[in-house]
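ok so for the tutorial part 2 we go from a plain amino acid sequence to predicted structure tokens. step 1 is just haveing the sequence, like this:
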Amino acid sequence: NKFDCIEGNYIFPFGITAWILSKITGIPFVLRHAGSDIWRVYNSELEDIFKQMIKDTTKIITYKESLPFWNELNAPESKLFISKRYVPSKEFWNAGCLKQEKAVFFHKLTPKWNWAQLDFFGSQLKQQRYQGYVECYCVGESDEMFMNVKNVFGKYGLSTHFHEFVSPDKVPNILKDAKYVLVSDVPPNIPE
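step 2 — the prediction. this is what the tokens look like for a chain of 192 residues:
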């Protein structure tokens, strides 16, 4: 069975993988970036490969805020598809089909991160009368950052359990058991 299209949903490594598969199979590929992934390839040893990917892709799914970057790389306007960032409506905050009372938080903690997002997460969980705990898969630059996470969730009556950051292949099983998944923005100048 031949697929119509291959989607690379993150420039590195999935976009590069989609590009290679496209070269091997002849199936066109679409490049979708998440935001912070651009800066992993821009001005790096991967930049030449990235520029070739731009030439070879059928479409680049991007956001209005990223247009100056694509213009700087001379990406043809005809290849750019401007998408809105997805923000789930409040009705999706309470997905009742999951059994375990666990919220999952993945993030790289840095001083430049917008720490107010933790307050938002805590307030939303409290508003939903969430009684579980927050499982945190984080990397950080100091113990103080982990303490900040614990304190912010703690002020909303939520306990935290910290785990080392995990490899991508383990993420689906972690998410499968979560009642909530807490996702935040990453500053574009912070390497992943």
